[in-house]
Amino acid sequence: MIGPGRESGAAPIHGVEELDARADALRALACSPVPLLVAGAYALFEYTGIYRDTKDLDLFLRARDLDLAFKALEEAGFRTELTDPVWIGKAWRGPWFVDLIFSSGNGVAVVDDAWFENARAGRVFDVPVLLAPPEEMIWSKSFVLERERYDGADVNHLLHACGRTLDWARMLARFDRYWEVLLSHLMLFRFAYPGSTGFVPDWVMDELLSRAGAPRAHPGAPHDICRGNLISRVQYQHDLDRGLGDGRRWDEADRLVREAEDGGGELELPAGSGR
Q: Is 265 inside any structural domain?
C-alpha cells in the first residue's frame, strides 16, 4: 500500500528509521489496552487516496487513556511529554515523534466514545487499525484556519470523497453552536466542486441557511466579543489586545449555562434530519 511517507515506485521520502519509529509506536499501542484511532495524513490517504507528506503520525485517543498510552510507549523506548494539557501529547524516539491527540487545539472537538463507535477499519504500517471517522475529522479540521496552517482543502477533499455516506445529522450536532464554521466550509465546497453539490443533502443546507437568515443568530452575545480565536490562536490576538472579550472564555461559559439548563442531555438533532 502506498501512503504518507512513500511515493509510488520510489524509495521512502523519510528515512527508514523515521518510518520505523512511527510503526513501532503504532505496534506498541496496538498491543496495549489503549483504544486509539489513526487520523491525520494517514487517515486522509485512506479516505481520499490523496498522498501528502507528513512529519509525524497522528493518533487520537480519549484524554483518560493518555497516561496508559505514555506507559506503553515508554516501555517501547519512547520519551513522552504532555505538550499542551488542552489537546496533545507527544512521544519521541530521537528526533522523530508521534502525536497523541485527545481534543482539537481550541478544546472544542474532544475525543469521546462516539469517535470510536463510528470509526472505520483500516490498515497502517501493516497494522489493523481504526480510522478516525470522517465526520469527526471534518469537525476537528474545520477550526484549523491559521495563516500558516489551513485545513480547508482537507475538509473539501473529505466532503468530496465521503459526502454521500456521511452521517450528516451527527456532524451537524457536533458543530452545534459553531454551525457558521460548517456553513462556511460547505459554501467553499460548493465553489470548489460546483458539480458535486448533491453530496451535501438539501436538508443540511436548508437548515444552515435558515439559521444564517435569522435577524440575530446569537441574540445573547455581547457586542464586544471576538470568537475568532476559536479558529486562529494567532490572527485574532490583536482584537483581544485592544479590548474585545475572549470569545473562547465566553463560549465556554455559555456552553456550561446551556448544559445546566438542558440537564446535560445529548445535543438535539435538527428537524428534518431523519434521526
A: no
CB atoms < 10 A from the CB of 167, how many? 16
Q: Is 132 left (phi over 0), alpha (psi -120 to 50) or beta?
A: beta
Does the model's pTM come out above 0.85?
yes
Question: Cα–Cα distance between 63 and 103 in angstroms, integer?
Answer: 8
Contact 146, 228 (CB under 8 A): no
* Tens digit of each residue's pLDDT (9 = 90 or more) over 180-193: 999 999 999 999 99
The three cell numbers of residue 164 are: 454521500
Q: Do residues 21 and 127 both lie within one domain?
A: yes
Q: 235 pairs with which residues across the strands?
A: none
